[in-house]
Amino acid sequence: MNPTERMIQILERRYKKMTPGSLRIFRRAEKAMIRGGSHSLRLLSPYPFFVKNASGPSVIDIDGNEYLDFWQGHYANILGHNPGLTVPGDKNAGLEEESLHTGFEVETQVRLAELLLKLIGWKGHKVRFTTSGTLAAMYAVMLALGKTGRDEIVKIGGGWHGASPLLLKGVKFDPERGFRQIESAGVPESLGRKIHIVRFNDPDGLERLFQKRGDRIACFILEPYLGTGGFLPATREFLSEARRLTARCGAVLIFDEIISGFRFAPTGVQRLAGIEPDLSTFGKVIGGGHAVAAVLGKAEIMDCIQAGPGRRNRVQFTGGTFSAHPQYLRAGLKMLLRLVAQAGEIYPRIAAMGERLRTRVEEVFAAEGYNVYCTGRGNEVVGGSSLLMVNFLRSGRPVRRAEDVQDPRLSNIRLREEILRLALLTRGVHAVHGGGAVSAAHAEQDIDRAVEAFAETARLFKKSGIS
Predict the structure, then answer these.
(1) Mean pLDDT in the chain?
(2) What is the mean pLDDT of residues 44-72?
(3) With 0-12 CB in 10 A as exposed, 13-18 as middle and 19+ as buried, what is 165?
(4) What are the residue boundaries of the structural domains of the chain, listed by start?
(5) In this model, does residue 177 exceed pLDDT 50?
(6) What CATH number was assigned to the domain covering residues 99-341?
(7) Is the separation of the CB atoms in 347 and 360 below 8 Å?
(8) Which has the higher per-residue pLDDT, 307 or 48?
């Protein structure tokens, strides 16, 4: 047995000893649910722990184990778990105090829409709410297709925009095909041929594609800060070129800010860069811990939603049954108002803790002979960042694009995604993709605790001969 497999066995024994209650529930879950759960990233091997309660920087499982959490609700909980955004008995809440969905319009959605538009800073835009980032991205692309009458889509290799069939190509790197493969059965090959993949932060490659196919391209969708594909910021040059080329060719520029929106400042990366896309998607943070997502866009594009019956460019962006749920909107409004009011304290603090965590993690692994580089840093657009992704590099080349962290020939993916996660769990730290996000609920002592867990893990890896 090689050192890696032996290490996994050791960690799994420790984990099972810690979590017998979670194992019992998981065995029930396997009989009733696919793989025993409802979200692939939560279903870690050998089984997930089941949470009893969550508060601030931590979660506690049903066996009483406390984990310092850097997942924080899929990066949505920038203020930490349960920060008190909904207050029972608020005399100003009116009907919104009720938790059940009414299916009617409420004023809070207008207030949240107005606040979003103000904070993003673009004039002549409109908002429509939905319930997830996947739906927001899907609807944004549909709007682009409907408005332009074209049928080709451009996206970033490594870019994740949810499980919409319109975008399920080029998410995971394949050593033989790169980012060219369709990601799921059920997506027709004919649709896949309409989706073109470009490299992140490669303005020359982007220009070549637009020169070749610009008159057929409906939209270019990208994350101005690449999320789970690598936690990498787009350069100002790349974003500027994206704006120039789409405008020249009459294509729609879409910024997916589901992760980056309100993560680095009380606005989007687009405003930090000074570049106005045609459509934007927001989610996660704007819901205050609830299912809220939104598409913001220029009125002439958003108007395709209300085009009259029989018009060819009418887009069926209905939003869904639970769109604009009163309780969700109320929490989202409180979240954004708090971020605005405390921006001068929150954002510099979590960015500083993020930088200290990234630097110290690199140092503790270097002390044991590992070439680790933590992505999640800022650049000339994003001044500071609270994000972290640990990458076990096989070479000394710079990390600039998704390929650098997703190509198994360049980075040890299994060590990051599977073994590191399990090792940290046995030391009371929960991380996804080798890290996660610092929240405002984390304190300096939490960073110290996390660094010590990483240091213990580095020593364990070295002792076990894992390379």
Answers:
(1) 93
(2) 97
(3) middle
(4) 3-83+343-464, 99-341
(5) yes
(6) 3.40.640.10
(7) no
(8) 48
Query: In 10 A of CB 105, how many CB atoms?
Result: 10
Which of 3-7, 35-39, 280-284, 316-320 is most confident? 280-284
Enumerate residues 6+ apart whose C-beta is below 8 A from 387.
75, 231, 263, 354, 375, 376, 435, 436, 437, 438
pTM of the predicted model as reported, rounded to 2 decimal places: 0.95
* C-alpha distances out from residue 15 to 19, 40, 450, 453, Å: 6, 19, 18, 15
Instruction: Give tens-digit pLDDT for 179-192.
Output: 999 999 999 999 99
3-state SS, the chain, equals CCHHHHHHHHHHHHHHHHCHHHHHHHHHHHHHCHHHCCCHHHCCCCCCCCEEEEEECEEEECCCCEEEECCHHHHCCCCCECCCCCCCCCCCCHHHHCCCCCCCCCHHHHHHHHHHHHHHCCCCEEEEEECCHHHHHHHHHHHHHHHHCCCEEEEECCCCCCCCCCCCECCCCECCCECCCECCCCCCHHHHCCEEEECCCCHHHHHHHHHHHHHHEEEEEECCEECCCCCEECCHHHHHHHHHHHHHHCCEEEEEECCCCCCCCCCCHHHHHCCCCCEEEECHHHHCCCCCEEEEEEHHHHHHHHCCCCCCCCCCCCCCCCCCCHHHHHHHHHHHHHHHHCHHHHHHHHHHHHHHHHHHHHHHHHCCCCCEEEECCCCCCCCCCCEEEEEEECCCCCCCCHHHHHCCCCECHHHHHHHHHHHHHCCCEECECCEEECCCCCCHHHHHHHHHHHHHHHHHHHHHCCC
**pLDDT for the residue 364:** 98
Question: Which is more confident, 398 or 278?
Answer: 278
pLDDT bracket for residue 88 (50, 70, 90): very low
| pLDDT for 437 beyond 60 | yes
CATH 3.90.1150.10 for the 3-83+343-464 domain, yes or no: yes
Residue 182 to residues 165, 173, 192, 195: CA-CA distances in angstroms?
Answer: 9, 11, 6, 9
